[in-house]
Amino acid sequence: MRTSGSRLNSVRCATALTASGWKNNCVIEFDASGRIQSLREDSQSDVDLILKGTVIAGIPNLHSHAHQKVITGLTEHRIAGQDDFWGWREVMYRANARLDPEQLQTIARYLYIDMLLKGYTSVAEFHYLHHQPDGTPYSDLSEMSAQLLQAASEAGIAITLLPVLYCRGGFKDEPVQDSQHRFFNDPERYLALLESCHSLCANNPDRSLGFAAHSLRAVSPSAMSSTIKAAGPMLEGAPIHIHVAEQMREVNDCLEINGARPVAWLYDQCDVNDRWCLVHATHVDPQEQTLLAQSQAIVGLCPTTEANLGDGIFPAAELMNSNGFLGVGSDSQVCTSPAEELRLLEYSQRFSLQRRTVLVPDEAGSNGRALITAAIIGGNRARGESLAGLQPGARGDLVEIGSDHVEFAGRSPDQILDTWIFSGPDNPVQNVVAGGRHVVHDGIHPAMESASRAYREMVNALDLS
Ligand SMILES: [Zn+2]
Questions:
Q1: What is the 460 CA–ligand 1 centroid distance (Å)?
Q2: Which listed residue (198, 280, 283, 438) is catalytic?
Q3: How many angstroms is it from 63 CA to the middle of ligand 1?
Q4: Contact, 301 vs 33, CB < 8 A?
Q5: Could you tell me the distance, in angstroms and rounded to a whole number, from the CA of residue 302 to the centre of ligand 1?
Q6: Does the active-site annotation cover 331?
Q7: Domain membership flag for residue 314
Q8: Which one, of 298, 292, 234, 237, lies nearest residue 261 by Cα?
Q9: What's the domain count of the chain?
Q10: Are 413 and 15 in contact (CB under 8 A)?
Q11: 189 and 122 in one domain?
């Protein structure tokens, strides 16, 4: 299967949310690498594609574990004594143990197409399933990474590959468990993996590379800092991701062993700046909130996964009020819709604060538009993209909401976004352009049928019951 489609030269959008507000008859031209070259109001000139609906920039998915897709729905049966995050993790580990490279590619291809259909146009893949089931490395260290990159190319989604460093079983430098051998690398072998991934991403505008530490449990701050330094130019300006403070057990362990809460300890030990994406950061106190906002790090929120796993609620209103950055991700893949993530993000704040329209940074404004804008800016930063939204230099990622749907009747563009996020039809995404390629046509991705068939056969053969 080849890479999805050739790039368009130009698109005209009847109504588009650009970086400087709503524009009508907006012609967007792309360069050869799929970035936006120019953007102007023009109802005359010939273009390759006309989008008659309501167009927004594509939303980045800043946190994904593709392999976890296969266990969605299989962890909702209560088992005595195991109905928490740690019991879920055991089920996930058992499923992980079975996946081979071809199966991982089959999962990722289906999943990434599904993301495009819902309005994500790029994905940051936090990838830690590196080795064979018994922990022996594949002859090519980046065998599993290559499957994810290939799947993304075939789907037509931009990918930021985040090979994950995982070098210990707990805060006290415990060895990894048997079920974690597939993840394990010491810093030396990790650097070899990173080098291989770096060459797989080079010279491809739809691929980029970043660094990820699994968590403070799995990587000491000193190992993190020395590995990033040793990677040198491979990680220059690249994003740095880490899971942090997702569960209270982690907070309590960190307090007991290091005398500080995880986020505070991370800031104490590492130079956390605007290249960092702190995934979850669920349990933070006011001092840690200040650190997050002042450092301009991005908080990577995955509301449906955080709800599913019983993590807790991140106090997002405080972050937004202090001009901090956030974005959303699909994480465990219980949901692949950015609209649903943003709805739950807002609703979780309403539940806890007993207020409405919480995550709007200004005195007044559309809640849906504010959530989408925050996710586009934060998500792009978490992928190492300095420009976001529809403007020259940003990636040519466009999502068209089909505004002729009956439920959008009588709505202004802002109200169409509000209706989509809070009460809209199931999936009103009509057309998607990713990196200048027209990948979703009138709600259909041309490779979805074959990808679904392959996914179904593979999952049936896995026998996960
Ligand atoms: Zn995660």
A1: 25
A2: 280
A3: 6
A4: no
A5: 8
A6: yes
A7: yes
A8: 292
A9: 2
A10: yes
A11: yes
Contact partners, residue 154, CB within 8 Å, separation at least 6: 1, 2, 3, 4, 109, 447
Show pLDDT as tens, one digit a residue, over the chain (465 residues).
445 678 999 999 999 999 999 999 999 999 999 999 999 999 899 999 999 999 999 999 999 999 999 999 988 888 766 677 877 787 788 877 789 999 999 999 999 999 999 999 999 999 999 999 999 999 999 999 999 999 999 999 999 999 999 999 999 999 999 888 999 999 999 999 999 999 999 999 999 999 999 999 999 999 999 999 999 999 999 999 999 999 999 999 999 999 999 999 999 999 999 999 999 999 999 999 999 999 999 999 999 999 999 999 999 999 999 999 999 999 999 999 999 999 999 999 999 999 999 999 888 899 999 999 999 999 999 999 999 999 999 999 999 999 889 999 999 999 999 999 999 888 999 999 999 999 999 999 999 999 999 999 999 998 877
The single-letter code of the amino acid at 428 is P
Q: What separation in Å is there between the alpha carbon of 80 and the centre of ligand 1?
A: 25
Query: What whole-number distance in Å separates Cα of residue 310 and Cα of residue 234?
Result: 37
Confirm if 246 and 280 have CB atoms less than 8 A apart: yes
State in Å: Cα 329 to ligand 1 middle: 9
Domain that holds residue 294: 63-382
Query: Does 110 lie in the same domain as 21?
Result: no
Q: Collect all residues with Cβ–Cβ distance below 8 Å to 126 and sequence separation of at least 6.
A: 63, 64, 65, 162, 164, 212, 241, 243, 279
- Residues surrounding ion ligand 1 at CB below 5 Å: 331
User: Is there a domain that residue 460 lies in?
Assistant: no
Q: Is position 65 annotated as part of the catalytic site? A: no
CATH code for position 50? 2.30.40.10
Radius of gyration of the chain (CA): 21
Q: Which of 331, 397, 418, 438 is catalytic?
A: 331
**DSSP-based three-state secondary structure for 23:** strand
CA of 306 to the centre of ligand 1 (A): 10
Burial string for 178-202 (b: 16+ CB within 10 Å, else e) reads ebbbbbbbebebbbebbebbbebbe
